[in-house]
Q: What sequence folds into this?
């Protein structure tokens, strides 16, 4: 029974005494501790340069800590081989602030990439991608090459690509920064729905309105350290 | 599940627009041409050496000096029969055959010209002695005994000069092997260089693919697939040029006397190997591209 309880409460992300330093520069983050439970929803806040991107990079296994231990899905990222890391990344969805789309591909193909990496059949990919692109109101632009899409459209493609795999963790860096209020509201609704289905969500944002409206706990970065600001109320 | 390897149209990496493609296509075609033509030379030299070795091992020629005019035809024939019987009596001899006069005339024609009156010349009689096992045949003993039995006959051991030729040909064979290795190494390094350059050009795309969970093998397969087709098309060109060159060489050399190098022909197996070169080249390109990507990604990312 205790073992069962342990499995249920095992954190998705567990950082212990983690510091990050780039080369010989001063530390960006120093001796931080963070534990993200399965199904949690957090906003990641802090000024520019506070280390939000570095923290997210560790969570999606693109960056190893200079010191300390980072466990993602219970695996220490400091000791993983490249293939094992790739397999773990398939369980993580990432939305970048600069979208990082494959500009030479269509919106459809961009969203299809994570499914193709998983080796899914083209029939299933077609069904899933069309459904999701329709949901983010890009069904008429799905064949357009990404370089021809507007900023808002690109952002929706990036979000669709991140969630198409039904990830266990969704990490988003300013996901509503380039879209109008209606679309932003719809995207946040998507994140909330995914969270209700069990996805752990971390959204980096500067938007006080967003934080106030959704009122989830905040992971706040300041002076190289991290503090959790609890939610005032649950919606 | 759809095979990703076969669905190149869905490749996330825009490899077909790589600037290095033209360089790779030309270098592959040239490498395949050089490799194939050298391989053809290697096959020909091997065939010639094998033929010469067979001559040394399988037989020898006996020369019977022309009989003086005082001897009757019967006496002359007896001289020949005596030598034939001598060789037939030796252990290790399989067959003794008198070379016919028309054959001797044919052999002499290139040296004396077609119009020469060969019948007027005092040509020697020749015997072809076929041995069961040339390696154990005692030439020295046979030569000594023959000088006692028939001093007018002599053994023409072409093994002595053929061995010199074989030695020279063997050197050429080693040289051609060296060239084959050199061409292969150059081709592999060209491919490795082109792939490494391409990986650096597409690094940002590969990073995105990695974030989405792509393994190095996933990326490597896209390069392998591209290299396979690029290698196939280029090597077909290289092989066609080789076949044209071999045809031209064969046409040009058909007018030459080929007594010594008559065996320098390519067998059907050799032609098969040369014509299959695009398959070997494309498969090698594919494997090398795959390994290059795996090796390079582990280092740069």
A:
């Amino acid at each position: 029974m205790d073992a069962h309880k342990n499995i249920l409460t095992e954190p998705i992300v567990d950082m212990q005494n983690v510091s990050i330093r780039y080369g010989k520069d001063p530390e960006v983050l120093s001796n931080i501790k963070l534990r993200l439970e399965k199904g949690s929803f957090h906003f990641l806040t802090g000024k520019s340069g506070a280390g939000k991107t570095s923290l997210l990079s560790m969570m999606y296994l693109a960056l190893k800590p200079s010191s300390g231990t980072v466990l993602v899905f219970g695996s220490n990222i400091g000791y993983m081989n490249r293939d094992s890391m790739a397999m773990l990344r398939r369980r993580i969805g990432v939305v970048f602030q600069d979208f990082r789309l494959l500009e030479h591909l269509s919106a459809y193909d961009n969203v299809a990439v994570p499914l193709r990496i998983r080796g899914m059949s083209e029939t299933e990919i077609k069904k899933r991608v069309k459904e999701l692109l329709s949901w983010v109101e890009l069904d008429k632009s799905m064949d357009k090459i990404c370089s021809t899409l507007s900023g808002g459209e690109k952002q929706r493609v990036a979000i669709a690509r991140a969630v198409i795999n039904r990830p266990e963790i969704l990490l988003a860096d300013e996901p509503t920064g380039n879209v109008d209020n209606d679309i932003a509201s719809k995207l946040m609704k998507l994140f909330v729905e995914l969270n209700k289905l069990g996805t752990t969500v971390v959204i980096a944002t500067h938007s006080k309105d967003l934080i106030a409206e959704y009122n989830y706990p905040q992971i706040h970065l300041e002076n190289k350290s991290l503090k959790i600001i609890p939610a005032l109320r649950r919606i | 599940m759809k095979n990703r390897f076969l669905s190149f149209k869905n490749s996330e990496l825009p490899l077909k627009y790589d600037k290095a493609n033209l360089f790779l296509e030309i270098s592959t075609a040239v490498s395949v041409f050089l490799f194939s033509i050298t391989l053809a030379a290697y096959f020909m030299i091997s065939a010639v050496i094998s033929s010469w070795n067979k001559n040394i091992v399988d037989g020898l020629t006996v020369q019977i000096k022309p009989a003086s005019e005082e001897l009757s035809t019967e006496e002359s024939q007896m001289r020949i029969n005596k030598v034939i019987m001598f060789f037939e009596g030796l252990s290790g001899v399989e067959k003794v055959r008198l070379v016919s006069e028309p054959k001797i005339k044919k052999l002499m024609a290139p040296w004396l010209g077609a119009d020469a009156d060969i019948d007027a010349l005092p040509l020697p009689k020749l015997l072809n002695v076929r041995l069961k096992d040339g390696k154990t045949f005692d030439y020295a003993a046979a030569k000594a005994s023959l000088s006692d039995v028939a001093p007018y006959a002599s053994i023409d051991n072409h093994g002595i000069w053929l061995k010199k030729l074989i030695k020279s040909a063997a050197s050429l064979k080693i040289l051609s092997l060296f060239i084959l290795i050199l061409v292969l190494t150059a081709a592999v390094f060209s491919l490795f260089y082109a792939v490494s350059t391409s990986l650096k050009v597409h690094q940002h795309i590969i990073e995105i693919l990695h974030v989405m969970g792509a393994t190095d093998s996933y990326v490597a397969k896209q390069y392998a697939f591209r290299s396979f087709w690029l290698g196939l098309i280029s090597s077909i060109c290289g092989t066609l040029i080789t076949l044209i060159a071999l045809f031209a060489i064969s046409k040009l050399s058909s007018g030459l006397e080929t007594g010594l190098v008559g065996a320098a022909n390519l067998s059907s197996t050799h032609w098969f190997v040369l014509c299959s070169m695009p398959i070997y080249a494309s498969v090698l390109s594919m494997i090398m591209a795959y390994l290059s990507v795996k090796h390079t990604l582990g280092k740069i990312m």
User: Anything to note?
Assistant: Residues 181-196 of chain A form the longest helix (16 residues). The CA atoms of residues 13 and 219 of chain A lie 13 Å apart. The first strand of chain A starts at residue 13 and ends at 21.
